[in-house]
Amino acid sequence: MPSWSRWILAPLHVLALASGAKSFRDNPLLGHPALNRHGLHVARKRLAHRLAAARRRRLEPRLSAGDRAGFLRDGYLVIPDFLPATEFARMRAEVLGCRTAAREFIDGYTLTRLIPLDGATLPGLPATAAALAGGRYRGLHDYIGSFRQAPHLFVQTVFSGVRDAAPDVQSHFHTDTFHPTVKSWLFLTDVAGDAAAFTYVPGSHLPNRRHLAWERRVSVTAATAGDRLTGEGSLRIEPAMLARLGYPAPRKLAVAANTLVIADTSGFHRRGISGGTACRIAIWAYARGSPFQPWTGLGAADSADGKLRGGRLVRLFWAAQDLLGRVTGQRNGWRWVGVRSPATPPEAAQ
Asked: What is this structure's pTM?
């Protein structure tokens, strides 16, 4: 970025310090070596976690004491048989039978397919819409995400081993961002232990002293890091370092269909390494609020937020991304691929 443009954008860079902005490369203040050596990144992380803990205390009635204790200990929950069997069967049949426009990304040996569950698709999937509107499903997302807000919803299919290549970038241990956030997978298929199972480092959602010291060191050089995603604020870490930070061994979560896995992805996690070809299909959800906001929601505004997310917000965002990519010639790899079902084989999709 030219030096003159940094001066023009300086007010925005300052304001971004009080937002969820995370890229060390795009913001010269967030990526400033001296500021981070003196603790800027770690201070933002500490404050964001304190505020999230306060918001979660106000949202405690939204889930059971057992779920709350399990999440606070580990940073994730695994809930088998999440939906009643008949309700799950209806939802699964609807989703797997759905054929609509899909978006795909190929990276390493993995092809990922996304079908938005929004105002364009959910009206034709009544059992799915009803299941995802349940109070327990929404309450878990609100509490773990620390905000009363509707998550973005997708059918996500992950095909591993589609070509002879290295594992994809999601297969490296990483944090999504510096502040607490929520992602979940309600699995429609079984996920075996040798497949691309979600893997989490228990307790890493509550950074200890060694973890914070490690992040301080990484933040000093992150703006010029060779790893692009670390530079963008999604910090990568080597498996050997996790033990040195004092965390237990990562847990690879082999699960049966109708299991909900939900986690704070500010903790260390990855997509598990697959031993060969594999396919997993899930209802994937995520939500991310403003980390320095002290309140959990705004009542009517929260309802409006739910309607917005239930509309076509993600499609508008993708359209803007695609337009920017065409203008700049820098595309991010995601593309619309035409009509697919969640289980359409990769070879038939290319």
From this structure: 0.93
